[in-house]
Design goal:
The structure is a homodimer. By secondary structure, chain A is α/β, with parallel strands linked by helices. The first copy, chain A, has 26 helices and 13 strands. Helices cover 52% and strands 8% of the residues of chain A. In chain A, helix 12 (264-277) links the parallel strand 9 and strand 10. In chain A, helix 8 (167-178) runs parallel beside helix 13 (289-295), helix 19 runs antiparallel to helix 25 and helix 21 crosses helix 24 (542-564). Chain A starts with 7 loop residues before the first helix and ends in a 20-residue tail after the last helix. At the A-B interface, helix 13, helix 15, helix 17, helix 18 and helix 19 of A face helix 13, helix 15, helix 17, helix 18 and helix 19 of B.
Chain lengths: 620, 620
């Protein structure tokens, strides 16, 4: 309520979006004679208003019976308000308070309104300011006004907020809403994202517990304290922009979770920025793609244990369940640890994919896609089960017309960076992470398609090579071998980071939350969950060691096949070479040490002296 | 000259170091009766001094005839000074000027001096301040005083400065001095480096054109303008500390060269810091180890072309010479380009070393060191010549007692980071730099010696395996093949950086300055110098392509040998796989694209649609 020109319609319309109830404009219920009178510049008298108010009053009763409504109505006098409220049980009166000068000014700037400015004076004369309800100063932005009304209405605050309604943000939001939480969602309404929130709310109008915002302050004040929000935006500098905007608006103790694929070093920095504001920051890796986010992802939150306690209930409720019904979300460790292990997760994923691509390439030499799919199904029904093997079968079977879709897909692999981050982290930590690097490089090489086509030799590289007889049992063993070394290298990378950064990671728990919800879920991951309870390392696990020992020969045979077929198996080769070297007491690095000492006086250690002693030889 | 206690001896001693002439103390030439008189607290009269001054005068004549000298002598009265200078052609009088109070204070703080403080007054009474010579206020540090004297003496300024007298800095300094330049060298005199400058000067006292400094300001003011100095200190944060100390002391237009192995990104930042001070900064890669630095390194300066002009003469004079007598120093490009290509140089070096280590490991199965050395000599006499092959021969031949030194060296390879930097740069640029990564990882793996010994299997890994028959011609071809791919990958990495950073690198010139003076010098580098004049890429060079094509089979055979011997040849394998993939028009990356689209909706391109179009399939 308030005088003409105070902004009733605008504010009421916004408010209706936040409250998820319809908006009505009292002016639409005027009889025609009233409208004519006002257009002629004549003020309405109380007689004019009587029938109008009766109509509104009846409607209000009806609206309340439905789901409630927001009505914009001047309702200047107490007796009008009495009429309006007589059929309603609960009215929230909101008085929009502005001075004559302010409103006069606004009306003069407005066009096409059917009331001329000179009637304003009579409105102010008629106005009886209510002694009750919510009074809001209109000399603020509409967002601020709505914000203030919302907080004063003592509406139930949201328990959780999601910032960013991209593919992952939307899916996670619905996942949270499914669990019954009151949820606020925010997306900016600019840069081509003008309608994101509206469209999301329309498409999911059945969720009465989702409240949409395009105004950041309103979004924030819609959250109960301490506020808990999940940022789901593209990793990179945008995250810093958003946090710099957010943190000053939040309060000490509020909890902000970055759920994107941020680099762990950036997460560490942001963690410290947040601390300056007293904000609890959590860097959470989230895996599972769109489907996982919607139905239950694997979640890897890193930060302080205290801040995790505040969000554990919600995060654990939306995560996937492991084979024993436990949630695939657990506290990982301090600082950037959550994003670090998500990065390694993706690195392991790169290798799993590359191993399958290498095997597919080899098998294609003697089998068609149907046969390969059948073989893979056989594997997938056994201990080799993995989500990635599973989708590979579906991909092999996917037809387009008479042919296979796979044959029409260009062989240039893309990447989003986490593979190369894992590889670079390995170099920083001094860990021989050969398979991830090989997988990333294999993608890079594939991207030079034009050069490859120009230089193509393809000697004897035709399909259905009759001379090739791959032993399928050996191939299955080689695949298993490669996967074991892949997981060994991935977990060793995390072990090294855990030591260097003092994270105290629990590898059994990490394997457990990766046993479902995420892209690298597999039977192997379940086994590792068990084994890591007592072992720190795959090479300490007898079952793993036995297999590696026994199947080394199969890998060698498959690699020989590949050599003969002029096929590079980057990852399988790397797994074999790593195993060979790690089981060789003597390597040829002594020559490298001698060379380094020769040309650079870098010194060397000796086998017949303590390792603490360094020697230099005058070689000439 | 000056009254007792003004600091004559201290200053004169310092000055003599800077001027590289002997120091004498006039007091040492007093007859005993004078000393006794002074000890008794009695002032000397002019009669006492006459014989003393005559002795000094004769000595001064002698000293001048030799090489000059610095004499500390009170020389209070004009007539004493006349006597002193009568046998000398050129005297620089330096008057140390201090108040009675200041000097009294200092004397009271001194112990063991044979003149008591109360004689000071008589000294001041006798003092006739000279109306000529250099007058210096003694209320400054000794370094400042010497600095002021040096600048006032109009001594010839140095043309070049070297900051840091480590192994490389010392060697380069002597190299510069050999070329006849007046050279100032600086090293801090703290943190265990108290005697570095003194020792360097003593050890190289035959160089009259080297001037040593431990005071930074004195070092700086010893240089002619615009000052040109080469920083030779350990790469890392120390460089920033030094530059932050240096830049404010320098003047606009002065040129600072960082000759260490700094990371190119740091060089870029420092370049911008220098610009704020108006300093011309040059990041120069320097290769060649101690010997190269002394006799002629390969120098890779990056910065502005203008600043390079100021130092080109000196840098080019100290560099190695190529086969045509041209200097192995050339302007590389802007910003961090010099340090970038030095980093890649080192990456190539890692691979060259690793290839030799792999071949050494394989050959060791059937040959002794003498035989291997003989084989390598044969290779080295032909087109396979390289410095690294050369030193490998000498290493193989080096004996200790009855055995070979190589067998006593521990097989844990160290590294100083440039290899992993190269690898990480490749990931940043999206370049499949597989061999460098493999070489670095091979070193990392070697460092896990304890695990390797614990896990050792060494199946059939004994020496002199009679079943093995390596074809030595194939091995030579494989070695050559690996080296070609190594250089291809290295130059492609530089090409990519050149494009991304806009450096406009000249690869023919880079190959030329790497053809001598540096660790990876080889006949191949000379060939590349020629070929790069018209080609951008080794794969565009017919001679290279022919060899790769022809010798692919040999590499395959050697890799089969290695598989049979349970030996990992990381780098040779990587070279083969890169070649195979780069000559394959169709790889299995289509499966990876399908997988990515399946679980992450990352989209894919198709072979039957323009590459600008991206597709998404609903796979289920």
């Amino acid at each position: 309520m308030g005088v003409s020109g105070c902004g009733k319609s605008t504010i009421a319309r916004e408010l209706s979006k936040h409250l998820k109830v319809p908006f009505f404009d009292a002016d639409s219920y005027h009889p025609q004679e009233n409208i004519d009178k006002m257009s002629d510049g004549k003020p309405l008298n109380d007689e004019d208003r009587a029938s109008w108010l009766e109509i509104l009053s009846e409607n209000l009763g009806q609206w309340e019976a439905d789901q409630g409504a927001v009505l914009a109505c001047s309702a200047l006098k107490e007796k009008y308000r009495e009429t309006l409220s007589k059929n309603v049980e609960k009215v929230h009166w909101v008085y929009l308070d502005g001075s004559y000068e302010l409103i006069m000014n606004r009306i003069n700037q407005r066009k096409g309104h059917y009331m001329s400015g000179r009637l304003l004076e009579s409105q102010f004369q008629a106005l009886e300011i209510p002694q009750y309800g919510i009074h809001v100063d209109i000399d603020q932005s509409p967002e601020e006004i709505v914000d203030q009304i919302m907080s004063n209405m003592e509406i139930k605050k949201s328990e959780f907020g999601v910032f960013g309604l991209g593919v992952m943000g939307s899916s996670i939001s619905l996942n949270v809403a499914d669990k019954g939480y009151e949820l606020s969602v925010y997306n900016r309404a600019e840069g081509g994202e003008e309608h994101v929130v509206d469209e999301f709310l329309s498409a999911n109008s059945e969720y009465k517990n989702i409240h949409g915002f395009t105004d950041l302050k309103a979004f924030i004040s819609s959250l109960s304290r301490p506020r808990k929000m999940l940022i789901m935006i593209k990793a990179g500098p945008t995250v810093d922009l958003v946090l710099n905007q957010l943190f000053p608006l939040l309060e000490k103790g509020d909890i902000v979770i970055d759920g994107g694929n941020s680099h762990y070093m950036n997460t560490k920095k942001r963690f410290e920025l947040a601390r300056e504001f007293g904000i609890e920051f959590i860097g959470a890796g989230i895996s599972g793609g769109e489907e996982g986010a919607r139905k239950g992802p694997s979640i890897m939150p890193g930060g302080t244990r205290e801040s995790y306690q505040h969000v554990s209930q919600i995060l654990e409720s939306i995560a996937a369940r492991d084979d024993f019904g436990k949630t695939c979300c657990t506290y990982i460790g301090p600082g950037g640890s959550g994003h670090f292990i998500k990065m390694v997760h993706n690195g392991i994923e790169y290798v799993e994919m590359q191993l399958l691509a290498e095997i597919y390439a080899l098998l294609s030499k003697q089998m068609n896609y149907e046969e390969i799919a059948t073989l893979f199904k056989d594997w997938n029904d056994g201990p080799a089960y993995s989500y990635l093997l599973d989708i590979t079968i579906r991909i092999l079977e996917k037809k387009e017309g008479d042919g296979y879709l796979l044959d029409l897909i260009l062989d240039k692999a893309g990447n989003k960076g986490t593979g190369s981050w894992s590889s670079k982290a390995a170099f920083d930590l001094g860990i021989p992470n050969t398979m991830m690097s090989s997988a990333v490089f294999a993608r890079y090489i594939s991207s030079f398609k034009e050069t490859r086509v120009e230089m193509a030799l393809e000697k004897g590289a035709g399909k259905n090579d009759s001379t090739l007889k791959i032993d399928l049992k050996s191939l299955e063993k080689a695949y298993n071998f490669g996967r074991l070394i892949n997981h060994q290298q991935g977990f060793k990378l995390m072990e090294s980071a855990s030591k260097v950064y003092g994270w105290d990671l629990n590898f059994s728990e990490i394997a457990r939350i990766w046993s479902n919800g995420c892209i690298i879920k597999s039977h192997l991951m379940n086994e590792l969950h068990e084994e890591f309870k007592t072992k720190q390392d795959l090479f300490q696990m007898n079952t793993v060691l036995e297999v590696l020992n026994k199947d080394e020969k199969s890998v060698k045979d498959i690699l020989s096949n590949a050599l003969d077929q002029r096929l590079s198996m980057h990852c399988l080769t790397a797994s074999y070479q790593y195993w060979i070297d790690m089981t060789s007491s003597r390597l040829s690095a002594n020559l490298i040490q001698a060379q380094r000492d020769f040309f650079g006086a870098h010194t060397y250690q000796r086998i017949d002296a303590p390792e603490s002693e360094y020697f230099h030889t005058n070689w000439l």
